[in-house]
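JOB MANIFEST
job_type = single_chain_structure
chain_count = 1
residues = 128
[input]
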Amino acid sequence: KPLPDFKISGELDRAICDIEKPLQGSITVEHSAKPVKSIELQLVRVETCGCAEGYAKDATEIQNIQIAEGDVMRGLAIPIHMVFPRLFTCITTATNNFKIEYEVNIVIVLQDDHLITENFPIKLYRPK
């Protein structure tokens, strides 16, 4: 099936995030040829381990927030507010053999079950 015509805009307030403060922003469905079923915000932890033989990468969804349900009003800015879960997040870490990184996915599900996904890498830090 071809992807239906759509235009979605939005913003996240930052890509380098204080782990103690929520990630905020907004998303707006400008137009969509098909009705929207839901809009979700996913937080994914990406762990990479490696040595001379190679690297293994594992991505785990650690939080999923449904920020809209049903066919949302066009042109309406839908707020994004995500608190980082204390038990499943730590600061972004990178060494020669090990990395912990994070990504935020915006997932729009249309009524015909088309998935529209955009991925945003983020860095988490803890203030001193």
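[summary]
The radius of gyration is 17 Å.
The first strand starts at residue 6 and ends at 12.
exit_status = 0
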